[in-house]
């Protein structure tokens, strides 16, 4: 396989991961449990699946040193905060608003990555991040302190900040460890942190929601997030973040199909801006790899 075809396959794999992750919007809206309860059972099920998969594939779960372990624990805490705030955002609004407020994270990543990882500023990525932000502007509702949409946007941006930090923190770890190993330990950390939620939940309600919870744990978490984490080996975090801006588009389409949440004209304009950023970034990344 030529280098160009290999890079195209990597781009398609990244987009497939983004599609799987985007199912969280529909599932988050469908599941009526408290977000902390939802995320606890999501990570509890996913932890078991990851562990069995690692045993089956004989994936090494050993962490080399305490410094790496500490970074993974911190990443797990950030991931848990990201998921809980995002699911609150979904409950306060709809798939489109929650996803699009979350997708300020490519811009946040572009700003933070050079400072944290000591990499060179990529002006094009920053400009494309601004383009994505423009898309979010068109898709967001009018800011009003008296409606839940405003709170949803704030929670979405907080979720974006936590997600950006977690991705940057894992950039170098994914070069040393298997992506499944990293996800396994992170979701175990999330499950431990959210375990107290069990004492404040109705287990009967959890049983009634077992199908969407299982789907969220296996399809979205185990498969989607692992594939996305592995993409960091092939792209910079900023590039992966910009390219993953297809997630709101996928999520909105799924919202139309399964929740009958029809987007407005502003939503369509914002979607065009986001897709434009993804296409441009994919094209530039492809040329750089094949040049």
Topology:
Layout: H1 3-30, H2 35-57, H3 66-92, H4 95-102, H5 105-117, H6 123-139, H7 148-170, H8 179-194, H9 203-208, H10 210-230, H11 237-243, H12 246-259, H13 265-290
Helix pairs in contact: 1-4, 1-10, 1-12, 1-13, 2-8, 2-10, 3-4, 3-7, 3-8, 4-7, 4-12, 5-6, 5-7, 5-11, 6-13
Characterization of this structure:
By secondary structure, this protein is an all-alpha fold. The protein has one domain (3-290). Helices cover 79% and strands 0% of the residues. The protein has 13 helices and no strands. The chain has helices at residues 3-30, 35-57, 66-92, 95-102, 105-117, 123-139, 148-170, 179-194, 203-208, 210-230, 237-243, 246-259, 265-290. Helix 2 runs antiparallel to helix 8. It is globular.
Short description:
This protein is mainly α. It is 79% helix and 0% strand. The protein has one domain.
Instruction: Give start-end ranges of low-pLDDT stretches.
Output: none
Described by the principal axes of the CA atoms, the overall outline is globular
Q: What share of residues are in beta strands?
A: under 5%
**Rg calculated over all Cα atoms:** 18 Å
Number of helices: 13
How would you name the oligomeric state of the polypeptide chains in this document? single chain
Give the termini separation. Answer: 16 Å
For the largest beta-sheet, the strand count, sense and barrel status come to: none
What is the number of strand segments?
A: 0
What is the domain total for the residues?
A: 1
Helical proportion?
over 70%
One letter per element, helices H and strands E, the order comes to: HHHHHHHHHHHHH
The structure class reads: mainly alpha
Mean pLDDT comes to 85
